[in-house]
Design goal:
2 domains, Helix Hairpins, 7 helices, single chain, mainly alpha
Length: 210
């Protein structure tokens, strides 16, 4: 049973969670390192952006160091620590890809482990043609630019398809908490990373010179 550092009374709830502030004396407690726990959420992948943003703003105000200037040194330190963790949690949880990678890491998955194996075989020919077009444009052949434009549109559509599949898998994992679903999510995230790298490479080449 967790107890308050200030008054010594129990802070842990019947569900096993612990509030940020002591229910008895309202002293700020050591912030959890788990991003979901800090936001008062159970681990899940399908999160409402509006819900997350609302909670972030509420916690930002409650934990801001300016509110603890006249508090004991221990509480001031907890405020600084909590604010830092909160900002990291916000950057991670608001981004679906980063959120998925965070949950994978929490569950012991190496998100880069199978990256090369997860490149879809059906992309190999398109990637080969893309690389040929890239080399031609870099070599001064502007006639290959329409091919790059087409490849950019195709890979952009693929990203949209992957994001739609991720949304479905995110909701499924929230219900099942299955490692098989996490493995499928990791494969999709690796595929997405591969395609995104291709899109970024094409965008950089197609960008007008400054």
């Amino acid at each position: 049973m967790k107890t308050c550092w200030n008054c010594g009374r129990a802070t842990e709830t019947e569900q096993g969670g612990a509030p940020l502030f002591c229910p008895s004396c309202n002293s700020l407690q050591p912030p959890p390192s788990d991003y979901f726990a800090l936001f008062g959420l159970k681990p899940r992948l399908a999160i409402s952006p509006d819900e997350l943003q609302k909670t972030f703003y509420e916690l930002s105000r409650a934990l801001h160091p300016d509110r603890f200037v006249r508090k004991p040194e221990r509480e001031r330190e907890y405020s600084l620590e909590a604010s830092s963790v909160l900002n990291d949690a916000w950057r991670t949880l608001r981004n679906p890809v980063a959120r998925g990678e965070y949950v994978l890491k929490q569950n012991g998955f190496d998100i880069g482990e199978q990256r090369s194996k997860n490149v879809p075989p059906e992309l190999l020919e398109e990637v080969f043609e893309l690389n040929m077009a890239i080399e031609e444009v870099r070599g001064g052949d502007e006639g290959a630019r329409p091919q790059l434009d087409l490849a950019r549109a195709n890979f952009g559509n693929m990203l949209g398809d992957v994001d739609g599949q991720l949304e479905t898998l995110f909701r499924k994992w929230d219900e099942t908490q299955s490692r098989d679903d996490l493995a499928a999510i990791r494969a999709l995230l690796n595929r997405r990373k591969y395609i995104q790298n291709l899109v970024s490479e094409v965008d950089a080449l197609l960008a007008p010179a400054a």
